[in-house]
From TrEMBL:
TM annotation in the entry: 40-63, 69-87, 119-140, 152-169
Protein name in UniProt: Uncharacterized protein
Annotated keywords: Membrane, Transmembrane, Transmembrane helix
Length: 196
């Protein structure tokens, strides 16, 4: 009996898991989502400006080579595809309020994370590849009268840019956002478990 009393006192002496403050968790989640949506909004504005510029270049400048026009069109179509993707993500994140229905919000956040990681995984490579190919095709006419050395530097820069964004920038960019989403989801899950 003495061992049982000792065991009970040790068990009761264990620190209780931290109770999360509902207001604090929801405030942190809102702040994290606002950070992501602000970044998406800035990207949307930048993409609209760049797409408008590419549209003007495509349809108001006369190029001799159809390869150049096709290159610009590839860049323009690729940017519009990316713009539609980030508009969709912006809409998903900004349409719900965590304070109205936290359980539904948690579910939508998990779905967003799953779809984003799946889509971004394959789409990013296609995006970078098509932008690089479009730029390479655009430079065919633009660099027509340039020296061989300048052409090599330009095309090498495109290859280096492709490799840099694919293998260095992408993993760091998406890892940071993934960590933010995981932290928000973890807090909401812990909050939900606290009330179950």
């Amino acid at each position: 009996m003495k061992d049982f009393d000792h065991l009970m006192s040790v068990w009761q002496g264990q620190p209780k898991p931290d109770q999360l403050s509902v207001d604090e968790v929801l405030k942190q989640v809102k702040k994290g989502i606002r950070s992501i949506t602000t970044k998406l909004y800035r990207t949307i504005v930048a993409m609209v400006v760049i797409a408008a510029f590419a549209f003007i270049v495509t349809f108001f400048l006369a190029f001799k080579s159809t390869v150049t026009t096709v290159g610009i069109l590839i860049v323009l179509v690729t940017m519009l595809m990316y713009l539609s993707l980030i508009l969709r993500h912006y809409h998903i994140l900004s349409k719900q309020d965590a304070t109205l229905n936290p359980t539904e919000y948690l579910h939508s956040l998990k779905e967003y994370q799953k779809s984003r990681s799946k889509v971004i995984g394959w789409f990013y490579y296609i995006y970078i590849l098509m932008i690089s190919a479009g730029l390479a095709m655009y430079f065919v006419e633009v660099l027509e009268h340039s020296s061989l050395a300048f052409k090599l530097v330009t095309y090498s820069s495109i290859v280096v840019w492709f490799l840099f964004t694919t293998f260095y920038l992408k993993p760091r960019m998406f890892k940071n956002e993934e960590e933010k989403l995981n932290l928000m989801i973890d807090r909401l899950v812990r909050l939900q478990e606290q009330f179950d």
